[in-house]
Amino acid sequence: MNALLEIKNVSLTYQTLKNETEAIKNISFGVNQGEFVSIVGPSGCGKTTILSMIAGLLKPTSGEILIENEKVSKITTNVGYMLQRDNLFEWLSVYQNVCVGIKINKNKNCLSKEQLIALIEKYGLSGFEKSKPAELSGGMRQRVSLIRTLALNPKILLLDEPFSALDYQTRLSVQNDIHSIIKSENKTAILVTHDISEAISMSDKIIILTKRPGTIKKIITLNFEKSLTPLERRENPVFNEYFKTLWEELQ
Ligand code: ADP
Ligand code: MG
To answer: Residue 213: CB within 6 Å of ligand 1?
Structure first.
């Protein structure tokens, strides 16, 4: 069986009036249904560029990207994108924020309002449906942002450094929450991060990139027991071994 997402020999060069920047060179990897994959690498190595191509926002200069064997050629609801800033609308309530996507899209795959209310309750936001984002903690805001992304029922979730604006303590608990939501909804996710610990605590597989132009340096498959949460992984003795391996690869 083919992977849900296939990146095949993809390169991308940005063209501007003044010059060309080769951002990504000859990248290939696959992501299976339900898999959680992280991409790590030095700043400017092309991580965001890869996500933008998967989302159909940018076309590869060469190579191709397939989702369920179909070439990605435009933006579709196959892919949900969650950014560093949660981008919630401050003047809308939690419930209205969660519904923004389905109002705009009206496609038949979207979750129903009942399903969205169920998600709001399941993930600890009941009682806050009418609250404005400003009344929520950073962690709650990220959960709202994730539920809003899930509302369009994407096949693949893209997360671009979604926790980097949070303080350390909050970040640990939000990683736990977001991981548990993604796993219990059986979603496929690709997380971009420069935080090695975050990648080890959340992923099934880590793709390490070289500095620009980004090429694949190494792919590491993590073998934690399936039931462990990100916080529990951090306490596991093999966590430090993975940390050391990644640290050395990134030097
Ligand atoms: P990362 O997310 O890993 O930090 P990016 O994918 O944002 O890296 O960028 C990769 C490289 O491409 C960087 O050198 C960046 O300066 C360059 N780049 C990104 N976007 C553009 C653009 N729109 N035009 C020209 N160069 C760009
Ligand atoms: Mg980036």
So the answer is: no
Whether the upstream peptide bond of residue 237 has omega within 30° of 0, thus cis, is no
| Global confidence as pTM | 0.93
Mean pLDDT by 10 residues, the chain (251 residues): 92 94 97 97 95 95 96 90 84 93 75 88 91 92 90 92 86 90 93 95 97 96 95 96 95 87
Domain that holds residue 36: 5-78+155-250
> 118 Cβ partners below 8 Å, 6+ apart?
none
What single letter denotes the amino acid at residue 92?
Answer: L
| Pocket of ligand 1 contains residue 52 by CB under 6 Å | no
Which residue has the least CA distance to atom 16 on ligand 1? 44
Count of structural domains within the chain? 2
Q: Which of 133, 131, 146, 127 is nearest to 89 (CA)?
A: 133
- Indicate whether 17 and 120 sit together in one domain: no
User: From the CB of residue 241, how many other CB atoms can be counted at a distance below 10 Å?
Assistant: 11
Say whether both 47 and 168 belong to one domain. Answer: yes
Tokens 């792919």: give the residue: 219
β-strands 70-71, 62-67: how paired? antiparallel
Residue nearest to atom 22 of ligand 1 (CA): 14
Residue carrying structure tokens 């096949």: 155
Measured in angstroms, how far is the CA atom of residue 201 from the centroid of ligand 1? 27
